């Protein structure tokens, strides 16, 4: 047990802290469009300093930093209430996938614009008929000369309307078992076969989209990690990014917790104080799970169950936190405000998106506890 | 940065797990519990160096404390730790009396029958009272593995010093670590039972109503262990965070053990409600320990006070 930083890590933290103090963009505007532009500017600023792809190898425009330095970055973001970066899916999933499984040509083509936020990325995994049972997806890709022709429908495609590239899972082999017939493609969103329809959520905004794909073409050189190998490419990348994601999520919770504390300071309502403390404690538990995950990843073993636990706990915490904020507003919560109404509504999706809480509980029950499959 | 036990700490954990399992198999725990006293056999515990383990570090103490909870060991070791943390010059064995009853009595004092000195809290002050000068009556404890006594003790020598605030928080962490042990043992028992017990021709653990309950137990147990280890480490290394961490640990671990045991009783069904099954022993330890040294509501308020 040792949570202290080495002298080099402390130096990095101090440099980072000073830089954030000089460059902090202020409070993030609420709402999809405004916050997207705000986060894009922030990412560009970080990238100019070389920190957008902190843990990426230097040859790909990253800083080659350690996972601990990545954790420090998220902690300092939280401490200073700095915004997240805009191209979150490109930075945490697309880029690492290309680095791990991509060809040299793919690395040269795709990585730099992810960091600069010149090209945004989205993820085309879920389909109307394939939510939790993702591997049953039906979007098909058929080879035609030097390109695959893709037809199908994707849903819950976050930021598709901002994106140049889509990480697309499509079926290339209908005969193989469902996990073994999928291929991981990088699909250009700017082509006639791709139609984006905004999917208006309960918040009234359209952060997600439906994607209608009708004979879109993807050149064969945009296959990542081999034909019919898409499930493994998608899953391994997800597993290895979970330590980083857990830190990003817990940092966001700490920011919101600090803002809520500012609003509730001095309250004498014992129920509100109890509920606030419970959220604050669980936020610490989440933070420590992220540290634990970092330690097991650094020891070179397989990522532990921390990823599944962290995503599940985060959803619980963010829902409890935003519900508490609404309750603290009292009767005024019947009216839309400029902060908590949106967050409260948005948080309802936390236990559904990126793996439902029920699926995460199945993963823990079956793979960690060894209980029989449902 | 290494959020994991060191090899030395793992060795302490292994030794504690194995020694306590051989010294206090659950049948032996039952015998001692039904006898109604504390097991004041110190020889080997002294040889292991456990009474002074706080001198090595709070993480080391938390590691042993978790195993005390895991085994339900009816040793007065944890009570002695609490007394020694408040009164570092303590000679012999001690315990702590804090809850006010009627007529100046102190309620729910563990291990008073085998203590030489009783550390008595009065308001913000603490006093060391020789057990021989106190009146000590057995009480009817919810948790039979940790006998409790009603103590009347006046006078005594006041204990003062800068160590007291830290000492109380170290006691919270030790108690929280015991709850983690209870939660870990009961989670394991529940998972094992859910794999074996068949209904409608299938192991009940294949039903999500049961498997998700087990997953929830695992989440809370892991979370509790992490927050306890953090608090233990912070008490020795990060004084700014340590007190809040200790309050957080006691609140979260108390609730985790209680939640795990209540849920486990549901997973076990009828057999878990019987006297012959061991579950109720862990259940009662969890419920009693959650109320020792401040319940989770009180500890949460201390956390709230640091933010609000």
UniProtKB/TrEMBL annotation, chain A:
Residues 122-206 form the Acyl-CoA oxidase/dehydrogenase middle domain. The keyword ATP-binding does not apply. Residues 7-117 form the Acyl-CoA dehydrogenase/oxidase N-terminal domain. InterPro entries: Acyl-CoA_Oxase/DH_mid-dom, Acyl-CoA_Oxase/DH_mid-dom_sf, AcylCo_DH-like_C, AcylCo_DH/oxidase_C, AcylCoA_DH/ox_N, AcylCoA_DH/ox_N_sf, AcylCoA_DH/oxidase_NM_dom_sf, Mycobact_Acyl-CoA_DH. Its cofactor is FAD. Keywords: FAD, Flavoprotein, Oxidoreductase. The keyword Flavoprotein applies. It comes from the Bacteria. Residues 229-369 form the Acyl-CoA dehydrogenase/oxidase C-terminal domain. It holds the Pfam family Acyl-CoA_dh_1. GO terms for cellular component: plasma membrane. One of its GO terms (molecular function) is oxidoreductase activity, acting on the CH-CH group of donors. Belongs to the acyl-CoA dehydrogenase family. This is Acyl-CoA dehydrogenase family protein.
Automatic annotation (TrEMBL), chain B:
One of its GO terms (molecular function) is flavin adenine dinucleotide binding. InterPro entries: AcylCo_DH-like_C, AcylCo_DH/oxidase_C, AcylCoA_DH/ox_N_sf, AcylCoA_DH/oxidase_NM_dom_sf. It holds the Pfam family Acyl-CoA_dh_1. Keywords: FAD, Flavoprotein, Oxidoreductase. Gene3D superfamilies: Acyl-CoA dehydrogenase/oxidase, N-terminal domain, Butyryl-CoA Dehydrogenase, subunit A, domain 3. The keyword S-adenosyl-L-methionine does not apply. The keyword Flavoprotein applies. Its cofactor is FAD. Residues 174-306 form the Acyl-CoA dehydrogenase/oxidase C-terminal domain. Belongs to the acyl-CoA dehydrogenase family. This is Acyl-CoA dehydrogenase family protein.
């Amino acid at each position: 047990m040792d949570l202290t930083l080495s002298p080099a890590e402390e130096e990095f933290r101090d440099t980072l802290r000073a830089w954030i103090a000089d460059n902090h963009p202020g409070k993030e505007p609420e709402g999809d469009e405004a916050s997207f532009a705000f986060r894009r500017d922030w990412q560009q600023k970080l990238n100019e300093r070389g920190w957008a792809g902190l843990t990426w190898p230097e040859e790909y425009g990253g800083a080659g930093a350690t996972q601990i330095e990545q954790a420090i970055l998220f902690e300092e973001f939280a401490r200073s209430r700095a915004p997240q970066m805009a191209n979150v899916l490109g930075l945490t999933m697309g880029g690492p996938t290309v680095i791990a499984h991509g060809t040299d040509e793919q690395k040269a083509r795709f990585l730099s614009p992810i960091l600069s936020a010149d090209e945004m990325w989205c993820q085309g995994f879920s389909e109307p008929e394939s939510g939790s049972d993702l591997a049953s997806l039906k979007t098909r890709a058929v080879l035609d000369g030097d390109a695959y022709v893709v037809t199908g429908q994707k849903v819950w495609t976050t930021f598709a309307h901002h994106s140049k590239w889509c990480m697309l899972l499509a079926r290339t082999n209908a005969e193989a078992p469902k996990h073994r017939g999928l291929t991981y493609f990088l699909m250009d969103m700017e082509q006639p076969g791709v139609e984006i329809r905004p999917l208006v959520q309960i918040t009234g905004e359209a952060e997600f989209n439906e994607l209608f794909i009708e004979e879109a073409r993807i050149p064969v050189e945009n296959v990542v990690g081999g034909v019919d190998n898409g499930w493994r490419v998608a899953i391994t990348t997800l597993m290895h990014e979970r330590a980083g994601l857990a830190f990003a999520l817990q940092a966001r919770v700490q920011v919101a917790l600090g803002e809520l504390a500012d609003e509730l300071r001095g309250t004498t309502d014992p129920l509100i104080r109890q509920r606030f403390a419970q959220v604050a404690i669980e936020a610490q538990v989440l933070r420590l799970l992220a540290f634990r995950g970092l330690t097991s990843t650094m020891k070179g073993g397989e990522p532990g169950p921390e990823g599944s636990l962290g995503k599940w706990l985060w959803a619980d915490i963010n829902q409890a936190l935003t519900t508490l904020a609404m309750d603290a507003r009292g009767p005024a919560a019947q009216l839309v405000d400029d902060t908590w109404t949106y967050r409260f509504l948005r948080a309802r999706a936390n236990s559904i998106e990126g793996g439902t809480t029920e699926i995460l509980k199945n993963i823990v029950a079956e793979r960690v506890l060894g209980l029989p499959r449902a | 940065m290494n959020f994991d036990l060191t090899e030395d700490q793992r060795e302490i954990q292994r030794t504690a797990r194995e020694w306590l399992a051989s010294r206090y198999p659950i049948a032996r725990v039952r015998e001692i519990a039904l006898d109604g006293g504390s097991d004041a056999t110190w020889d080997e515990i002294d040889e292991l160096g456990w009474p002074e383990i706080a001198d090595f570090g709070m993480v080391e103490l938390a590691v042993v404390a978790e195993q005390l909870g895991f085994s339900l060991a009816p040793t007065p070791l944890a009570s002695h730790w609490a007394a020694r943390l408040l009164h570092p010059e303590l000679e012999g064995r001690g315990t702590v009396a804090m809850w006010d009853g009627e007529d100046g009595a102190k309620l729910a004092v563990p291990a008073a029958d085998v203590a030489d000195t009783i550390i008595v809290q009065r308001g913000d002050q603490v006093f060391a009272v020789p057990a021989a000068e106190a009146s000590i009556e057995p009480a009817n404890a919810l948790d039979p593995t940790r006998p409790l006594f009603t103590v009347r003790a006046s006078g005594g020598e006041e204990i003062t010093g800068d160590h007291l605030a830290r000492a109380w928080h170290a006691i919270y962490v030790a108690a929280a670590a015991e709850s983690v042990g209870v939660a870990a043992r009961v989670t394991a028992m529940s998972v094992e039972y859910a794999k074996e017990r068949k209904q409608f021709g299938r192991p009940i653990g294949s039903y999500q109503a049961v498997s998700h309950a087990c997953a929830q137990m695992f989440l809370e147990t892991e979370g509790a262990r992490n927050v306890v280890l953090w608090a233990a480490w912070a008490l020795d290394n990060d004084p700014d965070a340590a007190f809040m961490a200790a309050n957080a640990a006691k609140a979260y671990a108390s609730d985790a053990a209680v939640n795990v045991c209540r849920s486990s009783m549901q997973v076990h069904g009828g057999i878990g409600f019987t006297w012959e099954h061991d579950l109720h022993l862990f259940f009662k330890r969890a419920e009693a320990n959650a109320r020792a040294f401040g319940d989770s509501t009180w500890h949460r308020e201390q956390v709230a006070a640091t933010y609000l």
